Fold:
Amino acid sequence: MLRWKYSRPLLGIIVALLAVGPLFTFGPLHGPGLQQTLAVAFLYGALALTYDLLFGFTGLLSFGHALFFASGMYLTTIFVNTSHINLFLSSFLAIGITGVLAVLIGSASLRTKGITFAMVTLAFGEAGHVIISRNFGNLTNGENGLPINADRIPQIFIGVVNTKYLYWLALVTLIFVYAAIWWVTESSAGRVFSALRDNETRVAVLGLNPTRFKLVAFVISAVLASGVGVSMVLVSGGSAPRFADAGTTIALLLMVILGGAVTRWGAVLGGIFYSIASTRLQDLSQSTALDSIPKIIKGPLSEPAFTLGLIFIFIVMFAPGGLSGAYYRVRFRYLNRSSK
Amino acid sequence: MNALAVKDLHVYIQGSHILQGVNFEVPANQVTALLGRNGVGKSTTLKAIMGLYPSTGSVKLFDKELNGVATHKIARGGVGYVPEDREVFSTLTVKENLNLAAHAENPNFELVYSLFPELLSRGAQRAGTLSGGQQQMVAIARPLLNKNQILLVDEPTKGLAPKLVAEVADALALVAHESTMLVVEQNLALVKRIAQFIVVMDQGKVIFEGGPENLHDEKFVHSMLGVSGGHN
Amino acid sequence: MDTFILISITGIGLGALYFLVASGLSLIYGLMGVLNFAHGTFMSVGAYMGLWFSTQVVHTTNTWTFIGALIVGGLGGGLFALIVEQLVITRLYERHIDQALVTVGVALVVGAMLGGWFTNDLRLLPTPTWFINIVKVRGAIIPVDRFLYIGVAALLLVVMLAILKFTRIGLIIRAGVENRHMVTALGINVRLAFSAVFFLGGFAAGVGGVLTAAYQNGVSPLTAGTWLIYGFIVVVVGGMGSIGGSALAAMLIGITKQFANYYIPGLGDFVIVFLLAAVLLTKPQGLLGKVSA
Structure:
């Protein structure tokens, strides 16, 4: 309760500032470079949040979440490119089909629990990645990825000068996903999800079917992820197999752990931080700043996964709760002191 | 002289406060029965003594603190454990089950085979294919291979046919001559036969300590254990 | 007929490689409940150790130096696995999800280190000249290296089964796979068995790393991920904690994949996932797994 009172207005101010930033001809949000970076970061923040519903709130460690994100991306791209349906309808179709896919995969995977569930979802996710990267049915253009046909999407999303619209699209997507997850987790179903995470038998004793509730959480998070995928198609100009691989799901896991599972804003922050950090670390590795460091250290440092992986290990082992956990620890210590 | 002294033992499992400050003592060279209705924390108490659940409080074995010590060290320190539901290794043979448990310098196979001759003849059989009674024999035999300062025995006759109950009871009565024992048991006839001391638990706490003669008092049994005694 | 034999034998050869990855995964999961995402890096470390031995230590390439590379790779993978177990896994004792997560971190960090040092390009592992020979089996032309993979995997299978069957540590591992807590309650320090399975699993993965380097014509930190995913599938199909189950499932999956790929190129991976789903729907504990997985 406490935390809402303090963080809600702050959250509102931050969102408002981010929203109006590109309107000014001065200030940091003016340039398309940062707008693009932030647009991608917002979408990863939103995607991390959909994963948090699954992993953090419901306790389902899935390694196949990227599949639904990629499914949203590829289906949208394919419909827009090859049929005469417009972008709006295409994305609805893509999200709907992903929902059906999630019901099928979820029902099969949820026959297992815990670590086995993780393995099974990993296998399904990998199957999706294989279908995409091997170009089954000549729909996905294989390893090269599938650019979206620029003539068939609204022109406000095309061109460097219009990057701000992509930025706003990403911000709106993030806010929408945040609101949806907020609504789900605060609903009575959301309480069942958390109860499932803590003690499944207790839920079963209440006469509720644990598997059915897990499936609902699984499908909601998949559908939202595919929605984020639709925005990602526009922001990144098409689909690519890397969005479907296990590495993407593992990145989501990193984001959620980094930001702190079970806190909505923590997952978002983790996603944004991870996304920006990996681009910045990539830039750093190509700069001359590392030239003076011996090769044995420079080599690993030039790989963003090295630094991010180390931070991740550190958080899992020594700082559970990630960024948001650290924030609450400091906050409560401060509040305790001031109340004395 | 007390073999075991449990003081203010608390256990939380998945947020539930299962043991809420358990206090009792087990006199040396005697058989103490831990009684109580289902779900009051008897098995949890034994598991917590073994270090199988994280707990706070104190468990002393002849002045040696066990709380916080690793389970295998507690067992090596002379606490033998016969778990509820037997927990024999079903994919291992009877002989392998016994070999696994034997860590003393001279494991006392003679004692085990004299108590349960069947285990010798069935040495090569997989424990999972044994009957419930035979599995219970394996479970009791395992700690007896080593030297124990105390034996913790959890519901040894649970789910056994009456004839087997008698057999297991005989074996326990024999073992009781050799070792201090703390036994959780629902079968009051068996308790009356072997126990010199009883401890009754309710809702995560000890509510009574005293002699087994109380079990002949119908009222006591009914109020403490919620069963009618005397029939067994 | 010759096509059938060709596909079967190459399928078993592929299965042999899967087995080398899966056996360790299965034992580690079965005994400790740890889903080990770092297992692919055990392969990579083994492969680079083998590469180092073949190119830096010895300067000739013959059968003996390749056997040397296999042993060095196996020891490298095994010791590295021990280090990972001691450094991170034991510190998260019984926290299974955190253990799985931390192995993800280890996989990322070690993969990045190897990539940073040796680049992500495939580096050629020198192999004896007879590797490119072929053998005719009833008219089918079989690359001879496939028999090597099968032989090495079979040897390791026998060694592992013997260790499990006839040694005290093997007895502890088998008992621990069934009921870890009861083993400790009998006075046995089960952590020694944890270290043993990490070493054994890492050894098999390291040997597998060297062999897969020969199979795919080179070493790269990027290839371990795919083998790892197949390892997981084999473990799920075969049953957690069962070495025999892993061997059986590895063969089944290797052969199925080769046959599917023969009829429709690229179909193999897809069919395997369907096989996995079928096993899960009918026998969730795997072919030979313990009932409560």
Notes: The first helix of chain B runs from residue 42 to 49. The mean pLDDT of chain B is 89. Residues 117 and 220 of chain B are 39 Å apart (CA to CA).
